[in-house]
Design goal:
- The protein is globular.
- It has a single domain, classed as Rossmann fold, CATH 3.40.50.2300.
- By secondary structure, the protein is of the alpha/beta class.
- The protein contains five helices and seven strands; from the N terminus they run αβαβαβαβαβββ.
- A seven-stranded mixed beta sheet has the order 2-1-3-4-5-6-7, with helices on both faces.
- Helix 1 crosses helix 2, helix 3 packs across helix 4 and helix 4 runs parallel beside helix 5.
């Protein structure tokens, strides 16, 4: 078992200039993975920038178009005192899966808070390609993200296993 660091917050958080909405291919792949896992209810989480809001709106629209349910959409800032309020709200629902997106720095800070202060687990979470960036995953530490599943821009999937990003090219699991 990997021990969590003393504090969930990054002490020297790098600045990132990411404002990338997920592509239609990514959205379709996230929906396909969620359906393949038998999910009916999703809770969405994202940063507050336009790209993140656009991504989650597209996921919600596509998911609900299929007759499924969105339990909540929680947003978080890029900088905050602790992200505890957002983490508690994000985990207040009991979805089949969580879907999260960036921006990367806010995602990392929120994810660290979730790991530290809630019962949330990465194995029940889907993310778009933006989060697959090794620098983004390193902000949390892949050792803490086992089971996290994401989609690449081409629709293929990846999963963190044993602290490594393992790609399943050409598939949606």
């Amino acid at each position: 078992m990997t021990v969590l660091p003393e504090s969930p917050l990054l002490h020297r958080a790098p600045r990132t200039a990411d404002d990338v909405a997920a592509t239609d291919v990514e959205i379709a792949a996230i929906i396909a993975v969620a359906r393949a896992r038998g999910a009916h209810t999703l809770t969405l989480g994202s940063g507050r920038n336009p790209a993140a809001i656009t991504t989650m709106a597209a996921v919600a629209a596509e998911w609900e178009r299929g007759g499924r349910h969105i339990a909540d959409h929680v947003t978080w800032p890029e900088t905050a005192a602790s992200w505890l309020r957002q983490a508690r709200r994000f985990t207040a629902t009991t979805p089949d899966l969580w879907v999260m997106t960036g921006p990367r720095l806010g995602w990392a800070q929120m994810t660290r808070r979730l790991l530290w202060s809630t019962t949330w687990t990465p194995r029940d979470t889907l993310v778009p390609a933006e989060i697959a960036d090794p620098a983004a995953l390193a902000l949390v530490g892949t050792a803490y993200l086992n089971g996290l599943t994401g989609v690449d821009t081409d629709g293929s999937t990846w999963t963190v296993a044993d602290g490594l990003l393992r790609h399943q090219h050409g598939t949606t699991q």
